[in-house]
Amino acid sequence: MIIKYLRERLSWIMLVICLQLLTFSVAFLDPEIPFHSLLYIVFLSTVIFVIFLVLRYQKETKFYKSLAEWEPHLDLSSLATADSPYEEIISENLLHQTKRLKGEAEYNRIMLEEEKDDLLSWVHEVKTPLTAMHLMIERLDDETIKTQLTYEWLRIHLLLDQQLHQKRIVFIENDLYVEQVQLKPLISQEIRTLRSWCMQKGIGFDLDLQETEVLSDAKWLAFIVRQLITNAVKYSESADIYLRSYFQDDGVILEVQDYGRGIDPRDLPRIFDKGFTSTLNHREHMATGMGLYLSKKAADSLMIHIDVHSKPGEGTTMRLIFPKRNDFVLIRES
Q1: Which uninterrupted H or E stretch holds 331?
Q2: For residues 137-143, average pLDDT
Q3: Apex CA 268: angle with CA 236 and CA 264, to 5°?
Q4: What is the average pLDDT score of the chain?
């Protein structure tokens, strides 16, 4: 450490030595200048310079050693040079901080995994009494109470389903199974789930499925379709919802069209943002702002493009544009 310190300040030391030699040279060339007096001055100045070096060494070494207590984001690499006497200290500090940050990141990852597992376990446990509740509601004779309870049951069911997929979507790449998915049974199942709600609001469905199958993941595609149909039902009153599938530009398109209240033009760029609900009905307690956000993330993983057209008071059309088969295979192989 001391050798590196002196080596870094070699230019200073050489300057002082040259000045002292110059002083001796002057005394040698000029006999009238007392040599002993100059020798005394040179001795004193040398002692002072040595004391200065010692004090600076202690002060600067103490400063660099204190860097170990500084914030981990401090860029210490800019303070170190190839010949710096503090290179070892800085390297050890960086290694220590790196190990600490890795440890914290691993701990946070484990905690998030445990939290996700606990929540998924809780959701699955809640589904058991929820299923039993639905069977009990189906046995009720009073149609009014039965309809009301079924609607509230459906709200709980959809919220739990959304929460379940929200936790799973982080690992969606490990959960995908791409296959030929039949559209009609998938859509029919989602409509049956919403049947009581649709009957309560006087909403019907019109299906025109010219293309009957698509290449996708059945579970996540069902989730996307569920969110689109749920939104269409939520914001419609006594009007039919149209679902069409057709072939266009070498790709399959699934279209969900409603004649509800529509979306304000200023909201269209933000409807897929996390937590965004609406600027027109900002106090609406039913909206969570998560359905379309999760649908968009799932669609991106499946390489499905979601196209939206809407006018306030006239309704909304959501189009799922599926990737071409060749494009899908090439992207998966890359």
Answers
A1: helix 325-333
A2: 84
A3: 55
A4: 81
From CA 306, how far away is CA 111, in angstroms rounded? Answer: 34
Has residue 148 got a pLDDT over 50? yes
H or E element that contains 253: strand 251-258
CA gyration radius for the chain? 37
- Would you call 228 exposed, middle or buried from its count of C-beta atoms within 10 A (0-12, 13-18, 19+)? buried
- As a residue count, the chain comes to 334
Does residue 279 register a pLDDT over 80? Answer: no
Contacts of 164 (CB under 8 A, 6+ apart): 120, 123
* pTM metric for this prediction: 0.64
- Give the CA distances from residue 332 to residues 216, 253, 301, in Å, rounded to whole numbers and listed in that order: 12, 21, 11
13 burial (CB, 10 Å; 0-12 / 13-18 / 19+) is middle
Q: Where are the domains of the chain?
A: 2-98, 180-333
CA–CA distance, 189 with 133 (Å, rounded to integer): 20
Taking only the tens place, the pLDDT of each residue in 196-209 is 888 888 899 999 99
For 269, the token pair is 């760029």
- Residue 3, class by beta-carbon neighbours within 10 Å (0-12 exposed, 13-18 middle, 19+ buried)? exposed
- One-letter amino acid at 64 equals Y
Superfamily of domain 180-333: Histidine kinase-like ATPase, C-terminal domain (3.30.565.10)
